[in-house]
Design a protein that fits this description.
By secondary structure, this protein is mainly beta. The chain contains two helices and 13 strands, in the order E-H-E-E-E-E-E-E-E-E-E-E-E-H-E. It has a six-stranded antiparallel β-barrel.
Length: 238
């Protein structure tokens, strides 16, 4: 169960949660996430820290305590101030059940992580999360025909350049779509062989190394140099 898909979210009829945010969150689903770790909480051990790709947007109400969050994840759009949600905490809804391999539309309780330092904590601190409601999640098995990619360069929230093991390049470009400006990634195969196909799911190699210095300017320069040998062409869009 390395990856899960959050299929839907609904308000908690027993009370609590974020009823006002359900429509906004639901409009951004389904979304995939990597199960980074299991983290014990005050009442049970079965909490899971899930890193989202792409992150969600959460517009809190006016009485929300922004001091509980990290300022670097604050943003603003036409709808007002919002918070980038890079991770969620999920746990099984029914006592005695547990997240498991092969699960389909499994009912869970879901909380938005509003302080990402919780990912490094030994135990779950509820004050670093905002309980949202009840959700359905499914296991995403790793495909046997996936392609391993090595990241070469990126511009955060704009584009990421990868190289395949076969020497081709894959460019991931971020677009903002819909009334809530939801971030969506689109993949383009560049300078690939005409017979090469990229499957719908692209997995980064766990030992992928960054071959270009961390400076954004040097990354852009190196990315341009890699393509000076000829014009880049889009072979396939995913």
């Amino acid at each position: 169960m390395p990856y899960v898909t959050i299929e839907s979210i609904d308000w908690d009829q027993s009370g609590g949660g974020l009823p006002y945010a359900i429509l906004e969150l639901q409009s951004q689903l389904p979304v995939s996430g990597r199960v980074a770790r299991q983290i014990p909480g005050p009442d049970r051990d079965g909490y899971f820290f899930v890193v989202l790709n792409p992150p969600l947007r959460f517009h809190p109400q006016t009485d929300f305590d922004w001091s509980r969050t990290q300022p670097e994840f604050h943003r603003r759009d036409d709808a007002g101030a919002f918070l980038r949600i890079y991770a969620v905490i999920v746990c099984s809804l029914a006592v005695g059940t547990q997240l498991h391999n092969g699960m389909k539309s499994f009912p869970v309780q879901l909380a938005l992580v509003i302080d990402n330092t919780v990912g490094r904590d030994e135990r779950l601190a509820f004050e670093k999360c905002e309980y949202a409601g009840q959700a359905l999640v499914s296991d995403v098995p790793s495909p046997s025909n996936s392609i391993e990619l090595t990241k070469l360069a990126d511009s955060p929230w704009d584009w990421t350049l990868y190289e395949t093991s076969g020497g081709s390049f894959v460019l991931r470009v971020m677009f903002s779509e819909g009334p809530y400006k939801i971030d969506a990634g689109r993949y383009f195969l560049m300078q690939g062989n005409s017979g090469q196909k990229i499957p719908p799911t692209l997995l980064l190699a766990s030992d992928a190394s960054t071959r270009i210095p961390a400076s954004p300017n040097s990354r852009r320069a190196m990315a341009h140099l890699r393509f000076d040998g000829g014009a880049a062409s889009t072979k396939e869009t995913i």
